[in-house]
Design goal:
The complex is a heterodimer of chains A (201) and B (124). With 201 residues, chain A is an alpha+beta fold. Chain A has 5 helices and 4 strands. Classes of the chains: A alpha+beta (201), B alpha+beta (124). At the A-B interface, helix 1, helix 3, strand 2, helix 4 and helix 5 of A face strand 1, helix 1, strand 3, helix 2 and strand 4 of B.
């Protein structure tokens, strides 16, 4: 019961704030866009194209919303992938195994954990909805999850290095969905990796 | 039970100084022998995110990628669950927890339960 009450409360507040932001943005976009588009002085093409996009966004909000999501999301996710690959080079010397009982000689050991919460962008969720009509593989949703797994392994290795471990045994990655499944767009996935760090001096 | 509130298990990963209790997720502790078993120990916590982080995460969700607010929240919660598990192990007189497992489930909308369990043992 307590959880339900909390959820309802947070949902209303969030919706009110989001709606106010969107309405404010759309109103200003409509006014500025139409003034810029109809203003006789603006003969410059680039201005008029920008004004046209602004105006269209105010009429069909999802155009601007999704193109923003696609453009910025693509940039951020590509940067993340490069960053993960670069950081992996520094921790690549750590030995990782999946064995329950390590066969290597070990002197000292302890638990290492790392986790990350990843989400697909609104653009990716939007496209996956259309993919669901015909079915089949959904590569666009695989991309953030694939990156999340790589990132969480790199974080695990970094944690191990910080604690002075040189080996990681019994590495496990768990996946759990947090957030409202029925809502669809707010789907967030938690990836949690844990292992036994060990060293042999 | 009064005593348990005063036991503070710090540096679980042995970052500065020796760890108070050894925690692993392997079936045995390499280089040590198990002398006695005390049974399964558990620790859990249910956490909800506060509204400010919820809004920020909602905005970050537009472009996708990592949601840092939730990552931190779940990390803190998981450490708390682990602390509770370790406290229980100390109460039983164990000095190590082996075969530790974690489970996460979302209960009622905005809240998540984090659960840690393992076997408390005495090693030498």
């Amino acid at each position: 019961m307590g959880g339900n009450i909390h959820h309802k409360h947070s949902g209303i507040s969030l919706n009110v704030i989001m709606a106010a932001t969107v309405i404010l943005f759309l109103n200003s976009a409509f006014v500025i866009g139409s003034i810029l588009f109809l203003w006789p002085g603006f003969e410059d093409k680039s201005w008029r194209v920008g004004a046209w996009i602004l105006f269209m966004t105010s009429v069909y909000p999802f155009i601007g919303w999704l193109s923003f999501s696609a453009a910025v999301g693509h940039t951020i996710q590509s940067e993340n992938q490069k960053d993960t690959a670069a950081r992996n080079e520094y921790v690549d010397d750590i030995i990782m195994t999946n064995l329950k009982s390590p066969t290597m000689s070990v002197e000292d050991c302890g638990l290492v954990m790392a986790s990350i919460v990843v989400a697909a962008s609104h653009w990716q969720s939007f496209r996956s909805n259309y993919r669901r009509i015909i079915g089949g593989e959904v590569p666009i949703l695989r991309k953030p999850l694939e990156w999340g797994r790589k990132e969480v392994i790199v974080r695990l290795k970094e944690q191990a290095k910080q604690s002075g471990w040189t080996q990681l045994h019994n590495v496990r990655i768990e996946t759990s969905i947090i957030g409202n499944v029925a809502q669809g767009k707010g789907l967030k996935t938690e990836l949690h990796a844990y292992a036994t760090g060990a060293r042999n001096t | 039970m009064e005593q348990s509130e005063h036991i503070i298990v710090d540096n679980p990963e042995g970052e500065d100084g020796p760890a108070a209790i050894i925690v692993t997720n392997t079936e045995s502790i390499p280089g040590k022998t198990i002398q006695s078993m005390h049974g399964v120990v558990t620790g859990s916590t249910v956490r909800a995110k506060h509204i400010g982080k919820d809004i920020l995460a909602g905005l970050k969700n537009i472009v996708g990628g990592e949601l840092t607010g939730y990552t931190e929240l779940l990390n803190e919660a998981r450490h708390q669950a682990m602390q509770r598990m370790m406290q229980q192990a100390l109460q039983m007189g164990a000095n190590a927890v082996i075969n530790t497992r974690f489970a996460t489930s979302s209960v009622a909308g905005g809240a998540a339960e984090l659960f840690a369990y393992g076997t408390a043992v005495t090693v030498a």
